[in-house]
Each structure stands twice: as structure tokens, then as C-alpha cells.
Specification:
Strand 2 and strand 3 form a beta hairpin. This protein is α+β, with helices and mostly antiparallel strands and 120 residues long. The longest helix is centred in the C-terminal third of the chain and has 13 residues. The strands form 2 sheets. The protein has a 3-stranded antiparallel sheet, with helices on one face. It has a 3-stranded antiparallel sheet with strand order 4-6-5. It contains 3 helices and 6 strands; from the N terminus they run αβαβββαββ.
Amino acid sequence: MITMAMILTSCVMIPKKNESGFTSWMNGREYQDAFDERARDLYPIVVEAKVSDQNKVLFRAYYTEIPDGPFWFWSNHGISTETFEEIRRKRKEEGYVLIHHQPLHVGNRTIHQATWAKRN
């Protein structure tokens, strides 16, 4: 399993397109719109969140080209710990590897950003 994760990570971390790279910081709705537009050809290998100076949660992602051949990914942002754990169990059962996870403490709660990927 560790070898598979290393191979998967090495294959997916090499950006090939000019559109690859970090987005600007944006609110949740803007982030989702950018994801929906980019997810046809690219996927977010890293998803990050931060609390802005105005005490709002902002998101950004590092996009890279979807590899050739059979490849699937799931990515979430701003989800609760309970939802993250549920999704993590489900993705593991489906054969996905967690390639990035970032928890962020916001007030009295924690939100999670994560991306899973799978190659056959």
C-alpha cells in the first residue's frame, strides 16, 4: 500500500499545463465555482484553508493535470470532522489513497480539506 501511494503521488505531482498551480484565495462559493470549471481537465492535489483578516474562511488549491489512463479523484473543502472521517472510511474501502489533508481550527470547530485519488 505504501508503494502504491508513493507511485500515485509521484505520478500526480508533476504539473504539465500552464493552468497548473495555486489559485488565489477565495470564499467557499468562489472556490466551488473554480473547482467546477477546472475539474474537467485538472484536479486539486492540495486544498488549503485559512482565516482571513476579516475572520472569514478562505480556500485555495494547487491544481495539476489529470493523468492519462484510468484515474479518479475526490476532493472536499470545509467539511466537518465527522464528515471527513465518514468520507475517509468510504474512500479507503473503494481503494482511494488520501494524498492531501489539511485540518483548520475555526473557532470551536475544525474544518477539513482533503483530496483522494485512485488509479487502476
